[in-house]
Write a structure and sequence with these properties.
Helix content: 40-55%
Number of helices: 18
Largest sheet: 5 strands, antiparallel
Oligomer: single chain
Distance between the termini: 128 Å
Structural class: alpha+beta
Length: 481
């Protein structure tokens, strides 16, 4: 009777599973929802514009970057360090907190493989008979596999074009493709990207995650005992592998029960069959695990049929050992959170300092020129002015902190078309004695104000430069001539 009761205890029951798992939503479905949202955002975001500006666009064609619906010229990339720091810190923070959660839940490689393997091959064409068996590769069915390859090739081209839209805005892209021969670089890039995606998803598959992607190697140094991972509970399920993960302790359920009569693992290997990276999670933490939690779903169904919780959960090693919930707030995550907040604040502050025109000032090779028998001293400069606005404007300059220095050239404001640049030779003059040093020329710091005369309150920038005043003895000699 005891043996019969024990046998009944480990025998799966659909009725018991239905009752136990009532209201349970598999991680797989949650991932699908996230994939759909991410895909829609990626496809739609390039088309969303506010005042003609995109959310994110790195446009090499027009030498512009759009960030948070604000347009910056390439000379205004002072916010890029904050953007890069935010990106790196974001990766560190996510990895420290949730391991390879990016890989399983947001990585395009994972999304593309799910589309090809689970949607096209399994659901649409029936090449794979079961969605929860990812270990056995389909054989034969060359016709269906060719159709699947064609479908994915079309989607790969769409994905490549979608990627290009973050560098060539859609409004330009659809004009360019009318004359593909004139835009060979863009068309070639699309072809290379699409070709790689076809090879990657159909041939390389999860080997990309295991052998090619550097993130798997980088992440290992960011883990700690509280990092959230996909973990098999050896205390409940029993030890299948040795502590070094290299040697199997048991090979079947009978041996497991002999070693540990209280072990709850049924040795069904459902967690192994469903793993897309072909690992056995019972072996412990492995670099190949992408935190997709499909093994947790499989174990939840099996153990749910026994009226027990899953042996595989998304938790931390310390939480399993100490029988508690994971600690999300700890020194490393708080430190990364503070650093992320600071980088984000810096990014927003930098983005608010956008200048509505650009000005670069360079001196000519001649330090100064003395005219009118020593009465006037000129300094010449080259001003590169760019109108970054969508409208034409008229521009002019003035010297802010030295009213005795005047603009003698150009004599009047000049027009620059929308988005255009113009090089202007600017001459600053003074008829005043600014220094009486007979040992050396005097370098006077000055501030140049450049502005649009028709939008003086809004379109204005200031730049620091210098005005060189000659030695006083040279000036006096010129005056005496």
């Amino acid at each position: 009777m005891a043996q019969t009761a024990a046998a009944q205890d480990i025998k799966p029951s659909k009725k018991r599973m239905k009752e136990y798992l009532k209201g349970w939503i598999p991680y797989r479905y949650k991932r699908y929802i996230f994939f759909i949202i991410a895909t829609i955002v990626a496809l739609v975001l390039p088309f969303i514009k506010i005042n003609g500006n995109h959310f994110f666009l790195l446009n090499f064609d027009h030498k512009q970057i759009h960030l948070f619906f604000t347009k910056f010229d390439m000379q205004e990339l002072y916010m890029m360090p904050f953007l890069l720091i935010f990106g790196f810190l974001g990766v560190f923070f996510i990895t420290t907190l949730g391991g390879r959660v990016w890989c399983g839940w947001a990585c395009p490689q994972t999304i593309f493989r799910v589309i090809y393997r689970d949607l096209i091959q399994t659901k649409l064409l029936g090449i794979r008979k079961r969605i929860n068996n990812k270990q056995t590769e389909p054989k034969g069915q060359m016709g269906k596999r060719a159709i699947g390859g064609i479908i994915w090739s079309i989607l790969a081209i769409i994905a490549a074009v979608n990627f290009i839209w973050f560098f060539v805005p859609p409004e330009d892209f659809f004009e360019y493709i009318k004359h593909p021969s004139e835009h060979g670089v863009m068309m070639g890039t699309i072809a290379i990207l699409a070709g790689f995606l076809i090879y990657d998803v159909i041939k390389l598959k999860e080997d990309f995650c295991i052998y090619v992607c550097p993130y798997a190697r980088v992440q290992s140094v960011m883990y700690d005992e509280e990092t959230i991972q996909t973990i098999y509970n050896t205390e409940r399920g029993g030890h299948i592998y040795s502590d070094d993960q290299e040697r199997k302790l048991v090979n079947n359920l009978k041996e497991l029960k002999q070693e540990d009569p209280d072990a709850e693992c049924t040795y069904c290997d459902s967690c192994v069959r469903v793993c897309p990276t072909h690992i056995d999670i019972k072996r412990g933490t492995q670099l190949e695990c992408i935190n997709c939690l499909e093994c947790a779903d499989a174990c939840t169904e099996v153990m749910g049929a026994l009226g027990k919780p899953s042996l595989i959960t998304w938790t931390s090693l310390s939480a399993v050992k100490e029988h508690r919930k994971p600690k999300f707030l700890r020194f490393r995550t708080i430190a990364y959170g503070v650093a992320l907040t600071a980088a984000l604040a810096g990014l927003f502050i930098a983005s608010t300092k956008k200048e509505f025109m650009l000005l670069n000032i360079n001196r000519t090779t001649q330090l100064y020129k003395i005219k009118d028998h020593g009465k006037v001293v000129n300094n010449s400069y080259r001003f590169l002015v760019q109108n970054t606005q969508r409208e034409d404007h008229n521009y002019y300059f003035e010297v802010l902190d030295h009213p005795e220095i005047k603009i003698s050239r150009p004599k009047k404001p000049f027009k620059i078309n929308a988005g255009a640049k113009m090089m202007k030779v600017v001459v600053l003059s003074t008829d005043k004695i600014l220094a009486k040093d007979s040992t050396k020329d005097t370098v006077i710091p000055i501030t140049i104000k450049a502005y649009a005369t028709d939008a003086k309150d809004k379109i204005v920038v200031t730049r620091k430069t210098t005005f060189v005043f000659p030695r006083y003895d040279i000036l006096k000699k010129k005056q005496e001539e």
